[in-house]
Amino acid sequence: MSAEAKDELDREARETRWEASSTVLVIVVLQLALGIISLRHGWTLWGIGGWVWLVPILPELVLAITVAFTIGPKGGGHKQTGERRGYVVALLLVVAFFNAIALALLIMELFTGAVRTGGELAIEAAVVWSTLVFSSGMLYWELDGGGPRRRAFNSDGQRDFLFSEMIASKGLVPTDWHPRLLDYTYLSFTTAIAWSAADVMPLSRKAKVMMAAETSLSALTILLVAARAVSVIG
Question: Nearest 5°: phi and psi at 162?
């Protein structure tokens, strides 16, 4: 293995171990805080107690441990990489499923008239939306081009997303530039806030489906839940 390839694998391992696990912990902190606040103030989610916000924390902690301790700069054969990627994607889908269920329960409360205070709705909508952004960003990061490990092995391989830096004029970006987790989180944020592709274009049908799903969930959160919260406060 060349020194350049080893350096890229080292950077990928640090990103996976520290940045990815920290991103998951941010989601855990948000939901833990909401769960504690809900229990303290007697908030419910369509009749379900505030403990419901604590349910996804266990798979999220398992996800954080998985990305932090199952990969290192010297390991990572194709079999190990594929197994790890499968676990991470499955756990991310579990997190996304729980978040979608929470959004569905919030929406049902709006249509059944069981609306509480605007502040409660706003906080819950903010946690749901933030979880959507962070989990979608990690999914993009994990699925693009076969995952971060495979992208590190084959920096010029097939990709699901086209970042503007990839086609920028020579000298505007470093010659060894590759998208990192922060870039995928930014992609997720712009998809959720603009409801369309911004400076990153989907190249595969898989990428288009993922972005469409995130846009739909974000639109529901902002248009229905957050807008209703503002009207109640006003």
Answer: -110, 110
